[in-house]
Amino acid sequence: MIEPHVPAPPGAPPLWGGRAPLPVRPATGRFLVLACVFVCAACGLVYELELVALASYLMGDSVTQASVVLSVMVFAMGIGSLAAKRLRNLAAAGFCAVEATLALIGGCSAMALYAVFAWTGDWGGMWANGPRVLLVAFSLAIGLLIGAEVPLLMELIQRIRRQDAGGAVADLFAADYVGALVGGLAFPFLLLPFLGQLTSSLLTGAVNVVAGSALILGLFRRDLTRRARWLLLVANVTVLGVLAAAAVLVDDFERAARQAVYGDDVRVALQTDVQELVLTGGTPGHPLGLYLDGRLRVGGRDERRYHEALVHPAMYGSHARVLVLGGGDGLAAREVLTHPGVRRVDIVDLDAGLVRLARTDPALSRLGGHALGDPRVHVTIGDAFHVLRTTRPRTYDVVVADLPDPGITASTKLYSEEFYGLARRSLAPGGRLVVHAGPLTSRSRVYWTVDATMRAAGLRTTPYRVTGRDAGFAAGPDRTTARSRAPKDWGFLLASAGPRSPVLALDPRAPRPRTLGPEELAADASAAEATRVKGVPVSTLVHPRY
């Protein structure tokens, strides 16, 4: 129950929590308060989503990052609500100060996270837990401030017209939830694709500070002393100026941060509907590097060894019809097309921007042998899981899964028992499936979980690995560019639906791979088998194990 306020004596100056008459009619005042609730709720959810998106990009494993952000933020909101009870008599000034602080912290959070990541390397040494500490700190601060909003707004709306607590809470929460819906939809469909992560967070902060200051300095200005009004005005203008200055400098900041992460030879940087693409090098003396969401996906020094090891063992046997899952860069298709007898190659990739880049960038296209321009190659933009579900049984002689590691949450379903069951159904009699299952030495349990999952789907597997990685090229979630910490091998699994495990060999009719020989392949297969982890569980769609 909110206690009645005792008015100040006649002629006394208004206090921060005073009850001066409003400059508008009560109905208009309630509408303005609820409109502010709507805007602030939308901004608050954008801050949450921004932290989740950036943390997933910088640290991988989006489920973990989302859980950390949302759980810490909800906890902090409860603490913030309790703390705001002490500001009830200063509701107007308190709310304005809270919104200015929230706009500054929330608006600058993405830039701060990215700056620390870019200029402190790969979080090794003293920064080993740096990203999570910073993520928790921002989640805690933003949650505290968001939690403080509702009690203060409750006091302000009761300030306009007294009503039962249940009705006031219903009004506030209705505006809050609708605002959260708008913010949640605006972030992925408007802000992120058109403005990017940094600019969208800065714009959200600007909207937040304008809404909060306009409500208090406009509608409740008579509740504030003259000094309080000037202090709040200066504070809000300062915050707005900081956000505006950051927005002006954001392009220069991104370029500097990108150079700190990728080096000085960045040639192409673009954000597609799916991911961020960065191309480096590709000139004499500077090997080409393709980064997808910050992970080195193609390293010019050692990509050929990876793709030869992935493709050539699977091509031993009939291979007229080949399906490449992933591989929008065209490099796996390049190796497939070296084999005589290939009549059709279907490539399925989720990112149309990557395919377009592989076709138009001279260096990347040249590295891929212009495979995407071959008339036998047909590209489909879509989800590999969905495409396999709609593929007719016994269609392909070879299926090449050139996919990110299961350590990236978005790829986990592509390493499930259900996925391998669909892949098995698509294979013609005697057909083979090859899967990149991540580095064997550093993540052996993940590798053998993939093996167990493929076997559970009715496939017979032959494990093998290839050592000699040079530049830390990673098809999976490893982000480091430090050679001392980069994985030293790639692990592969060759599978068939027949009664026996497939033979690990190279097609004698095809040109011999430049970096791979049959003797080395046999030795690496024996080394892979020696690392077997027994008793690992199977990964499914509803119970991922990676």
Automatic annotation (TrEMBL):
Gene3D superfamilies: Vaccinia Virus protein VP39. It is an enzyme of class 2 (transferase). The chain crosses the membrane at residues 31-57, 63-84, 96-121, 133-157, 169-192, 198-218, 230-250. GO terms for biological process: spermidine biosynthetic process. The keyword Repeat does not apply. The active site is at 402 (proton acceptor). GO terms for cellular component: plasma membrane. Catalyzes the irreversible transfer of a propylamine group from the amino donor S-adenosylmethioninamine (decarboxy-AdoMet) to putrescine (1,4-diaminobutane) to yield spermidine. PANTHER family: THERMOSPERMINE SYNTHASE ACAULIS5. This is Polyamine aminopropyltransferase. It comes from Streptomyces roseirectus.
